[in-house]
Protein 1
Amino acid sequence: MPMRVMAAGLLVVALAAACGGGRDTPLDVITLAVPSSPNNLDPRVGTDEVSQKIQQLVYSTLFALNQRLEVVGLLAERWESPAPTTYVVSLRKGVRFHDGHELTSDDVVYTFTSLLDPNFISPRKGAYRMLDRVRAVDRYTVEFTLKEPFGSFPINLVIPIVPKGAGAGLRNAPIGTGPYRFVSFAVDDRVVLAPFEGYMDGAPRNGGVVIKVVPDDTMRGLELRKGGVDLVVNDLAPDIVHQLRTDPMLQVVEAPGTDYAYVGLNLRDPVLKDVRVRQALAYAVDRDAIVTHLRRGLARPAVGILPPMSWAFTPDVADYRFDPARAGALLDEAGYRDPDGPGPAPRLHLTLKVSSTEFNRLQSSVLQQDFARVGVALDVRTYEFATLYADVLKGNFQLFTLQWVGVSDPDMLRRVFHTRQMPPSGFNRGFFSNPAVDALIDEATVSNDDTRRRALFADAQRLISREVPYISLWYKTNVAVARRDLTGLRLSPSADFLFLRGVTRVPQQPTAP
């Protein structure tokens, strides 16, 4: 199958030209490159990716997610749910903010009540619509009361805690309880963080972190090669990672991730409302080829929106492995027979809308070839992301490709596939509706029993997979490219930056001439 590779020759020449030093920070400081400046370092407000990564280092959260995406305590020492609408959280004692004062229930209450305040502007507010009130029971105990039962509520407690009374100053000068304290912020240049010796789980093993803004993808690769930065996490194109693997001064660390790429289908479309057509299109896609050639192995074929490491994931679903013959038989069954056999005349025409990024253009070309193999002519139309997204929200599409980033909770099944979540209420943009799926998700939503919820979510995933509201493509592999002298590189499923506290530099032994 012919595939274009992104300016591979120019990339090799550019990366080969990088040489020499280039460090402008002390050796025990870890310099990490990111594509843009943070928008807002107040975790209640700043939700862009770079802001959130820095917030992970400066603040601490009540809860965190483990390797199976289960909610576990961080600032919370323990928690219980004495009633379906009540959660009581006990805090760790002796946790200090960077200015020296102790974190207490007052800080937790302040953080969440600010999100409930109608005058406080935050994109996070929607996640707390079900929260009725939060109160301090005592100095180290907080009670959350919900308006109605919601089994996924604890994941909404994975949010950084700010000090009581904190105002707009957190935007550019944050104060938290995390492993690093804020030092300085130069817009479009860098954020400097120093190790916090009083961190509750022990001081970082390095002399601090510099978050350096390097907007261009190829330039980030050049900076790595010449030593101007030490580390890039998930911000290099697969082709660049492929080239950097050959550099003896660099290392590549991979770990399974939670980002999910898919083709969305409009189930109100006269052609796509037939499940046989949707299943045929799923069988037509060679996901392994996309993963191997376009993603350079930095992904794995996907079977559904929940990632395999999730505690609620079930592998027992309809898995549409590449099968052009099966695709053709289903299209025949649906009444779309090939008018000229293996000839050029198509069975039917469909339109795919994609964003104008290079990777999406390449991927859509592969989909176009795959569909043509089974007699489906695919008209690919590219748009700037804002235009594409507006059309998706309006249901103005037959097919589109997008990614869900950081899928961490099975409540995504409700938000994406429940009948009541059709726009403008939710993310069911393909207008999928199945009463049996709705009933399973409704029961799972109000249950506090994770064993029961796991069984309900598994049944929902099986039904959804047979209906094919999405054609699953791949789960992203998290990848860090770093200087060879760094140790302690351990990526989590969400690729958060907390692992940096364990990163240190080990001098490399000179190699023999």
Note: Residues 450-467 form the longest helix (18 residues).
Protein 2
Amino acid sequence: MEEKLQRMRELGRILKEASKAYYQDAEEIMSNYEYDRLYDELAALEKETGTVLAGSPTVTVGYEVLSSLPKERHETPMLSLDKTKDVGALAEWLGDHKGMLSWKLDGLTVVLTYDNHELVKAVTRGNGEVGEVITPNARVFQNIPLKIPYEGTLVLRGEALIRYSDFEEINAQIPEAEARYKNPRNLCSGSVRQLDSRITASRRVRFFAFTMVTGPAMAYRSEEQAWLREQGFDVVENVAVTAQTLPEAVADFAARIAQNDFPSDGLVLTFDDIAYGRSLGSTAKFPRSSIAFKWADETAQTTLLSVEWSASRTGLINPVAVFAPVELEGTTVSRASLHNISYIEDLALGIGDEITVYKANMIIPQIAENLTRSGHLPIPDTCPVCGGPSRVQDENGVKTLMCDNPACLAKKIKLFTLFVSRDAMNLDGLSEATMEKFIAAGYVKEPADLFRLNRYREEITGMEGFGVKSYENLIASAEKARTTTPANLLYSLGIPNIGLSNARLIARHFGQDFAKMRSAGAEELTEIEGVGSVIAGAYTEYFADPENRRIVDDLLEEIRFEESGEPQGESLAGMTFVITGSLETYANRGELKNKLESMGAKVAGSVSAKTTYLINNDAQSSSSKNQTARKLGIPILTEEELNNMLREKGGA
């Protein structure tokens, strides 16, 4: 079974790479014959195993946008684990019993429910008694089976997380340092609890099962874990241990944590005998069947030498501690983030203080304690970049340092860096260092100036490290970047809270008409699903500023909009479609989805009271979507009937 599941994962990866090359990159890395052969092999394996893995090319999971996350009480309270940092105490706890030792993953605990093969519900741990229902988001996790062989009711718990490699790649796409995510756990927590599952899908969340709550009777945890793997789940890595083998196993886990691609903050030891573990019951706070092992953090004492302050495009001035270098977990560290002024005050920091430092989860340098607590660290009253006055801002009890100078060079550099980034105007060849030189020399004062650099050919080609070839490449890149989309332009302006996904939602709502977009009012903006009052407020405030309007006007003289492939028509505006089953006249559901959206419709993943039509060539099917549609009185259209309707509306 494991070999078949592995082959299914491999086939899914190969087919998705081929589809991306064909549809997004206009390249063909395999023939249609080969694609169909591999696709058929995957479909046959899914039928044979009864398992359909998340993201499989044989299925399309629709995205959903919710107004809020519903709450639900857990049938069985989810207690925290008692913990120890002593391996000897861990062995004493296990006694003469066999145990299972596994990673304690540092993500967000999620409870999944399957019924009659299908994933029907996903709920976060919440406070242990009440969690939030995140079923639409769980359906777009990278590796959750949407369908499993088991026919009965299965309830299991596991950890949702984001790998370090994915976290770093996501952060690398964010030009401004202060906007980057602090760590994978925080990013995962926010991603899992999104109201728009499209955002969750973009964050590459993964799920690792660690225990079964309801399902077929099992005698041992090791047996349970093997069975979950057969159902298609990724299971938290674990090993069988006794009190005698436990120290060696713990040491093996510890030796590998620095190389892991996933966040972990310790280990979990569980009795292998399920019945025995349950017979022990629980305390008011902890189950007695499991215990957590937390790494005894390696700490080092050192001296705080200085604090560096760096300004950002939002005006936030960030502090970083610089201390005498020390060895921690096999590497030399000399810097750690101080986060904000409140954090500095809590530690009562002062230059020359004796501090202890450690690596959180054996990775991220942090200050553990200030031994001398002098409390005399000066807070700058000027911006370290522009020299303008700084001020302490207190929001919800958290103090930060801000620069209010709109002409601050740091703000300009960060804003321009965002403007030229790949997801914005995609203007290659302009690093922050180069941008700083251009701004300091007066070549660039506003975004439109980036398209007028040919005025300074002699000056730029004479700059150190910037010859004729570099200049020509830059001008060619700027010429290419002139052609963009309304969404990319909107994102490039750096309006607070307007990411690329929100920019696309707004552009789609206004039919790619930038003139309508820039004059939109807050009330109309909040009618767009996924755009709330905070975003609408920042948006309207930006375009109400005369200087911002002038900057945008200058930009519009330099750029042109391309055909973005986003919806242009409105003949299906206000309609919501759900697509299910196989298609005959369209290559796949994606092609039909694009067709419907190009005419102004919305395509959802599940049938609800908001659905206008369900599209299914097998209109008499007893599938769950058909049953729901009939119950709600929603018409079911065959592909032929849909195409007839589209022709009538001018979409043939």
Note: The chain has a mean pLDDT of 84.
